Amino acid sequence: MLDRINIGSVRVSGNVAVADTELYGRITRPFETEGKIVVQQYLVREDGKWRVATGDSATIQRFLKANPTFARKFPIRQPRIYVKQNGKWVQFNLRR
Length: 96
Hints:
Elements: E1 2-13, E2 16-27, E3 33-46, E4 49-52, H1 57-66, H2 68-73, E5 80-85, E6 88-91
Antiparallel strand pairs: 1-2, 2-3, 3-4, 3-5, 5-6
């Protein structure tokens, strides 16, 4: 369940932008705790309005390939997942 979103710095180049974002919520699996995802959101300006252009890795790669100058200025960073343990945020690493 999503509790809140914090939008950090936003960098704009023409009609594309990237926003540093933190998503906070409750996690129920594999155990119940608070969770946080630190991620970049890519946006595109269409008809004067900003629209989120990201979803999955394939979408992001297509977006960056179509905007190589932007991709060089703002390289993609992988999302980072954190869980709260003993009052502190601890990075959660998925093992595959």
